[in-house]
Amino acid sequence: MFVHRRFKHANLSAFSLITFSAIVFLIHADSIIYHSTPHSTASTGAPENLHAHNHITRENIMTTLTLIPLSSIQEKDEAETNQKALVAPFNVTERRRRAWFREHLHNFKILMSNNLTRQFHARVLGFFGRECEAQFFMTWISPASLFGERELLSVESIFRVHPKPCLIILSRTLDTTHGYRILKPLLDRGFKVQAVTPDLSFLVKKTPAETWFHELRKGRKDPGEIPLPQNLSNLIRLVVLYKYGGIYIDTDFIVLRPLTGLRNSIGAQSMNLGSKHWTRLNNAVLVFDMRHPLLHMFINEFALTFDGNKWGHNGPYLVSRVIKRLGKRPGFNFTILPPLAFYPVDWNKINGLFKKPKSESESIWVEAKLLQLSESTYGIHLWNKQSSRFTIEEGSVIGRLISDRCVNCNHVYVS
Description:
Blueprint: H1 12-30, H2 58-65, H3 78-82, H4 94-103, H5 120-127, E1 134-139, H6 149-161, E2 165-170, H7 177-188, E3 192-196, H8 200-204, H9 210-217, H10 228-244, E4 246-249, E5 253-255, E6 265-271, E7 278-288, H11 293-305, H12 316-326, E8 335-337, H13 339-342, H14 360-376, E9 379-381, H15 384-387, H16 397-403
Parallel strand pairs: 1-2, 1-4, 2-3, 6-8
Antiparallel strand pairs: 4-7, 5-9, 6-7
Helix pairs in contact: 1-14, 2-5, 10-11, 11-12
């Protein structure tokens, strides 16, 4: 609720005094920093470089890459034609759902290996070079046609905030000529971004999820009612960071400040204001070194407790229960950042940030919120599932933030 509703009948002097007090309270209350001392303190070093751990020469990589002409990279956007075939039937027994899964396994391209997926490791190593200040990853499992203006704003924010980042979007549907056309405006500006079809068999190899994935590919696991690719996205972000290290962000996250000063960090989505302890974590932003033991525990939990019927069970709830169970066990070096770091606004309140101010008091609220976010927030999760129907209004908090960090600013206010 905006400030003007509280002060509708106040006189000017009282209004000014109370408004000033409200701004001070807003900034102070939302800037409480949660510090997870039982776990660790943050390290300022950059993520471990993957080149120290691979045995593939640069010459071999480049030779391999020349064998992948752009025009041959999955010309057809396969996900456009089989999205409906990937949704399991509702309200059926687990036995019937497994039978359905075995019958439709051929439609789950994300599980398959081919000549393109087998180039995955070489393509990643060839893309991440010494000129990369930071290694970023995203995932995209939907059709390329759905990768729209909002998602591009998220990508652009990475390059606007960091001097020399490199971004790989793990996506079968964007690793096409259609996807190339979508990303071309960024490539034309010299930004290092590339869509790469992931090889899940390679990514899970020698991890706790290897056996689970092998059984899944044979149709011996229950995929659940939630679309399987959505749940696999939770696994992909874990195993790719485990293999290469770096920074993972969702495609509905707008970066406001450099993330390169963080290391082995995860963000709290909510916390108890009294005890200052987190109540739920989220996996929309993950910053971890290669082979970090906490990632290993996350992957193990995914394989042991996978449930495709419960939303969030294999994602935010997974990282929350693993770290809660970990407690004060020594030997792990990671930091839990407060909600203000990545999730300054909860999903059920995000709509307020999309609205332009319509009065002086609302304008004051917007300025106070912008000041708070600019000083204490690394980025803001837009909760696209809830906010995608909202238009970014000119002058709103989101509009102001994005306008300062966009590359192609013509599409900021496109819904």
